[in-house]
Amino acid sequence: MDNPLNNFKKNFSYILSLLPEKLTCFMKEDGNYFVGGFVRDIYLNKEKNFDIDIAVKDINGALNYFKREMKGNIITLDEDFGVYRVFIKGFERYLDISKLQGADIIEDLQRRDFSVNATAIKIRNREIEIIDPLEGFPDIEKKIIRAISRENLVSDPLRLLRAYRFKAQLNFEIEDKTKGYIKELSFLTGDVAKERLKAELFKILSFRNTEKIFRDMDESNLLKTLFPFMESYKNFYSGKLHKYDLFNHSLETLRIIETFNDAGFPLEFDKNILSEELEHGFSALSALKLTALLHDTGKILTKKVINNKITFYKHDEEGSNFLKNFLIKEKFSSKSVNFIEKLIKLHLYPFHIIQSSKENLKLSPKAYFRLNKEVGPFTALLFVLFIADNLAKDNENSSYLITGAKKLYEDYLNFDKKNKEKQPLLNGSDIMEILKLEEGPLVGKIITDIKELELEGRFKDKRDAIDYIREAYGKKI
Fold it and tell me: CATH says 227-357+378-395 is which class?
């Protein structure tokens, strides 16, 4: 049986053969090493196709070389620590280059976060020299994440969160001693720049097992450093139709969304919208997962006891307003904030329609236009959230509400098809000419009114629409 290190060397040799010759020559020079995740993932036979991690003794010389010899475009990531990203013309990967921290490669590796990221490779002629002073490769074999030292976590508290990101990414376990460090030091994340915390959160959300990772993070006190209000979720009564407290209901809703993504969604829609980026590293699917976690936050804000009955009136609106302000402070983009805010604001909308039209359940043209205006191409995700929310309640009303939601979504698709296929009977210019109006909000209101009635089938032709607006608006004007 082949030794894992021998297999690794074979894999590494193959990867080297794919690299530009000038890069390989550079890496043979003294003081230049392949390091970090690049080395780790080749050992795991999961070599990434987007970046190569390099540590160098002479950072200025390295940058000059890549700029001069390889026409590299250089971006500064951290000037204080000497970290740069290099894009090479005609090469699909990018290089993350860092200055050696310490006198040599051993000191550099000793200052890194976890043993699985603290290995290096030196190319000497045709030989591949493995540098593993902290036993990173054995830890990779055992699938454990072990902090190099408590001091290294203190020096950069973002590493506390990165431990869980690597747990999600690699499907490894965090060793008990490291878990203890993380729990003790969790308070330090409050001093980390919000942009850095957000980037790690986005990475965690991008993996398949976010619900489990969040539960593990909660045990280490890290979840509340990201979402302080979630402590109030625990043992909070969610409502008479709920099986779980608010904390477990929210995580269960997230888990169900992840199950849909793995096993198939309950609605038909263009799955490409799931990968649409709302901001760098944050897809619509990740945003949906985060929305599932946060969708009932408003219940904490609106809980009242009226006639011995606990109510949460308008928790959808209050929750969306609260989270809008919270996410803005956390440096989320306006597109991300808008997505989450709108889905939370409307997450009860299907319920209200179902409750108000039990005898003849259907989506009205007015409701269609509201959904189209508010969430547009993400309407399917609103209904997915509604279905997951009700499955997470685990009560006898769930199937009735889920069936109703599917019917409403079918109506939405039918209206959407008609709306896109039909040319409007009257446009803005027509309306202004017929009613002798100037351009303004009233014209838009009339256009919407006509579209809604047209979808209802109220007009046979353009003449009917003209008669209607003259009757409905002519006298008012």
Answer: mainly alpha
Cα 116 to Cα 132: distance, rounded to the nearest angstrom: 10
| pTM exceeds 0.70, yes or no | yes
Instruction: Outline where DSSP puts E strands in 236-317.
Output: 277-279, 282-283, 304-306, 309-311
Strand partners, 86: 74, 95
Average pLDDT for 365-373:
91
Which residues, including other chains, have CB under 8 Å from residue 105's CB and lie 6 or more apart?
A: 33, 55, 120, 122, 131
pLDDT digits (tens, 9 = 90+) for 198-253: 999 999 999 999 999 999 999 999 999 999 999 999 999 988 878 899 999 999 99
Query: Pseudo-torsion of CA 117, 121, 122, 126, nearest 10°?
Result: -170
Confidence of residue 440 (pLDDT cuts 50, 70, 90): confident
For residues 189 and 196, give the distance between their C-alpha atoms in angstroms, rounded to a whole number.
10
- Do 459 and 468 touch, CB atoms closer than 8 A? yes
Classified as helix, coil or strand, 95 is strand
Q: Does the structure show a pLDDT above 60 at 31?
A: yes
Is the predicted pLDDT of residue 1 greater than 60, yes or no? no
CATH of 143-226, one of 3.40.50.300, 1.10.10.10, 1.10.110.30, 3.30.450.40: 1.10.110.30
Answer positive or negative: Cα dihedral of 213, 219, 225, 228. Answer: positive
Question: What type of residue sits at position 78?
Answer: D
> Looking at domain 4-142, which CATH architecture does it have?
2-Layer Sandwich (3.30)
**Whole-angstrom Cα distance, residue 318 to residue 296?**
10
C-alpha 21: how far from its chain's center? 37
